[in-house]
Specification:
The complex is a heterodimer of chains A (111) and B (113).
Chain A (H helix, E strand, L loop, with lengths): L2 E3 L3 E5 L4 E8 L3 E9 L6 E6 L3 E5 L2 E6 L4 E6 L8 E9 L6 E3 L3 E6 L1
Parallel strand pairs in A: 2-11
Antiparallel strand pairs in A: 1-3, 3-8, 4-5, 4-9, 6-7, 7-8, 9-10, 9-11
Chain B lengths: L4 E3 L2 E4 L5 E6 L6 E7 L5 E8 L2 E4 L8 E4 L6 E5 L8 E8 L7 E2 L3 E5 L1
Parallel strand pairs in B: 2-11
Antiparallel strand pairs in B: 1-3, 3-8, 4-5, 4-9, 5-6, 7-8, 9-10, 9-11
The chains are: A mainly beta (111), B mainly beta (113).
Chain lengths: 111, 113
């Protein structure tokens, strides 16, 4: 199976930068996704990494190191609306193509 | 371009009744995934379907739960003889292919009294 670890909670200040880490242990790795989920709402897709390196998309960037089983999501210029849960999900290279989700990191942005 | 649709958004059932949750994937998507989320917990994979076929049901309880994705119409997650422990948010996601990102519907919040 897959084991995915993320910090449970983080707090940051509006305008700052925050890095949310995700470590995973799996065989047949075939991609890592980050999702944002506001309380009571559906997860929304943020980013996808399958090769090592940094993927940048506006204020959000995601990094992957396959050899270390490690990824992070970087949020710049934090806004109050960024307060949400951030979910790391790993896909393995099986016929199923399913993704296994971590329990999420709840980020609170304070003024 | 409509996103993933789920209905009902909220469903209340008494113990022993049946719950039917429906999911219409995003246009052009033929891969559907069902997840369950308990309060304060992460998403747990239940089942993955592609038109008329169940690809992976390893996360779905063997009893009382079933899923289908017919050639025509939405995907259905069916829970028979519901119990209080079935109370959760059930999310459906769809993708254009096995390698593509999954996009989530708004979820169905099931409450079993």
């Amino acid at each position: 199976g897959q084991n995915i670890d993320q910090p449970t909670e983080m707090t940051a200040t509006e305008g700052a930068i925050v890095q949310i880490n995700c470590t995973y242990q799996t065989s047949g790795f075939n991609g890592l996704f980050w999702y944002q989920q506001h309380a009571g709402e559906a997860p929304t897709f943020l980013s996808y990494n399958v090769l090592d390196g940094l993927e940048e998309k506006g204020r959000f960037s995601s990094f992957l190191s396959r050899s270390k089983g490690y990824s992070y999501l970087l949020l710049k210029e934090l806004q109050m609306k960024d307060s949400a849960s951030y979910l790391c999900a790993v896909r393995v290279n099986t016929n199923a193509g399913k993704s296994t989700f971590g329990d999420g990191t709840t980020l609170t942005v304070k003024p | 371009n409509a996103g993933v649709m789920q209905n009902p958004r909220h469903l209340v059932r008494r113990r022993g009744q049946e719950a039917r949750l429906r999911c219409s994937p995003m246009k052009g998507h033929s891969h559907v995934y069902w997840y369950r989320q308990l309060p304060e917990e992460g998403l747990k994979f239940m089942v993955y379907l592609q038109k008329e076929n169940i690809i992976d049901e390893s996360g779905m309880p063997k009893e009382r739960f079933s899923a289908e994705f017919p050639k025509e119409g939405p995907s259905i997650l069916r829970i028979q003889q519901v119990v209080r422990g079935d109370s959760a948010a059930y999310f459906c996601a769809s993708s254009a292919g096995r390698e593509e990102p999954q996009y989530f519907g708004p979820g169905t919040r099931l409450l079993v009294l």
